[in-house]
Fold this protein.
Amino acid sequence: MLCEEKVVENKLIGHPALHLYKLVLNGQIAQTAEPGQFVHVKVGQTHDPLLRRPISIAGIDRKRGEITLYYRVAGRGTDLLTRLKENETLSILGPLGTGFTIPQKGELLLLAGGIGIFPLFSLIQAVEQTKVKIKLLWGGENRRFFESAGLEELRRIALDYEVSTLDGSLGTEGLITALLQDYLARNSRTLKFACDFQMQDQHILRAAACGPKGMLKAVTSMCLQESIPIEVSLEERMACGVGACLGCVCTVRGESGNVQRKRVCKDGPVFNGGEVIWDEEN
Amino acid sequence: MKKIDLTPQLTGLKLKNPVIVSSGTYGFGEEYVSYYDSSLLGGLTVKGITPLPRLGNPVPRLAETPSGLLNSVGLENPGLEEFLRSYLPKLEKLNTAVIVNISGFSLDDYAQMVSSLSGNSCISALEVNISCPNIKHGGMAFGTNPHSAEEVIAVARKHTGLPLIAKLSPNVTDISEMAKAVASGGADIISLINTLLGMSIDIRTQKPVLANTMGGLSGPAVRPVALRMVYQVYQAVKLPIIGMGGISNWQDAVEFMLAGAAAVSVGTANFVNPMTPLEIISGLEEYCEQRGYSSVREIVGLAHR
Ligand SMILES: Cc1cc2nc3c(=O)[nH]c(=O)nc-3n(C[C@H](O)[C@H](O)[C@H](O)COP(=O)(O)OP(=O)(O)OC[C@H]3O[C@@H](n4cnc5c(N)ncnc54)[C@H](O)[C@@H]3O)c2cc1C
Ligand SMILES: Cc1cc2nc3c(=O)[nH]c(=O)nc-3n(C[C@H](O)[C@H](O)[C@H](O)COP(=O)(O)O)c2cc1C
Ligand code: FES
């Protein structure tokens, strides 16, 4: 869908040095948006910058007709976005792509690296309404980052989470892989049990991850080793956002073992972690 | 309101209106069906097909530049056989003129593709891409030397009765010479321009942005170059021209037609505003009406008076 959405709110959140913004839009998109999908945003009115910018849908409120986006100022395009004011309109293409599977039973392990938490917010929101138990492991730079990027909100909804920071200023010191390793070790008996006995659905553990590529690669291999199915949300530079230009591909192994390309914007951004070929040589 | 005749004059290629969408920017026509009815388009050019499937280049394949886009997709496509089997039947249902863009690495490749595509009644024309900057052999190599360009077109001509479009590369010193070469090779129509070879370097990593180092530049940044080349080709040969390169609105389209394009094609602008082709069609119609023309054909080449 191509539409003009109205800006409800566009404001800096957290520490100014982190340049994180929350943007709430009112319009059509909320009615069909699903967790893990994204919107393609026209950031300016002229030919420069030319392309739209992809931003994940972090919150969906169908009743109010609102979607929430969180963005970090990364360059000219996102900087232009910060100038948008309440009641102005924004040209949006979306909702785009294929999002996360919403589990109805069992347990969901969420793995977030830095601002990779943003698309997971909408997944948390959707899963909260089911019987599924959520556990979040979130790695970030330092305490300031977490306090700016929405940790407060997670506390408010009493989400079960653990964080790691590079400098040890909050949670465990180190990377998210350390948190995951620890988690897997603690749960290895139940996990083993679950796969040995093809446990009934209510004990099934699945994972969903978003973050830098290196992190996604590492957590995917750790999860798959324990036979935990994992979905990953990938990022790639995009032009059309709808699957027409083949600019944003990733490489996957197809069912018959053949190497093939998939479009991050259309077939993803969420992929089955097991199918992704992380280090492509050619 | 008087009805304007929108049909362009393109040897053998019959279109409802002069607005086409460009190869590589519109997939195989499926992606934009939820935005508008593709039967409103003058025509639809599919992604470049090669004899065998290609995975294309590694990512990053895209880099944004001032008012432009560099791409190095590298002709990723399912290959001729799969195209005929899975994609062509769906294209037929879109009810618009389908132009199949083809690329090869040898004269035999072009001969083979042209012959197997020619038997299909739902294909309106073949566009021979002798100008792709993103593959190492063939492609642009054919399109930067007038002799081999003529040779490729002559081979294609021998194997098809379909309208034959020769797509020219702007990466040459003399575009007129290339136009004359493909005209004598037997092309019916000339389309131009393909992308301009360019690059971009990330000063933080100190490496090229594109995994393939170089890529093809498109978008508004190339428009003046494209327009100049259309103007020159119009003077050099009698063949009808499909003009493209940075066209983003109806004013741009009018400019190209005044320079000599019988029809225009929209590429990169689809990414920014998917509705661009339709807005151009109605803009052209209005321009003609306001100026008192009864057909869009009347404005073609007027800048040469
Ligand atoms: C599916 C998807 C979802 C995303 N969700 C979010 C989100 O929720 N919040 C958020 O802050 N950011 C998100 N991003 C990243 C965001 O798109 C980029 O930060 C943004 O495009 C940068 O644009 P810029 O003009 O500010 O930066 P510049 O560096 O000036 O951009 C130059 C070009 O590179 C592209 N580019 C730069 N960084 C990225 C990147 N990381 N991913 C893709 N393209 C990039 C731009 O789109 C632009 O075409 C997402 C990216 C993708 C692919
Ligand atoms: C992502 C992308 C892929 C392209 N792929 C092809 C292709 O397969 N074959 C071809 O002849 N031209 C290809 N082109 C070139 C376009 O068809 C067109 O000639 C060029 O982009 C200039 O027009 P524009 O500025 O309107 O995009 C591609 C262009 C882009 C941006
Ligand atoms: S951005 Fe064009 S195919 Fe994904």
User: Anything to note?
Assistant: Chain A has a mean pLDDT of 93. The pocket of flavin-adenine dinucleotide (ligand 1) is lined by residues A 38, 49, 51, 53-56, 70-72, 74-78, 115, 118, 235-238, 269; B 64 (CB under 6 Å). The helical segments of chain A are 29-32, 76-81, 117-127, 143-148, 151-156, 176-186, 188-196, 213-225. The first strand of chain A starts at residue 2 and ends at 13.
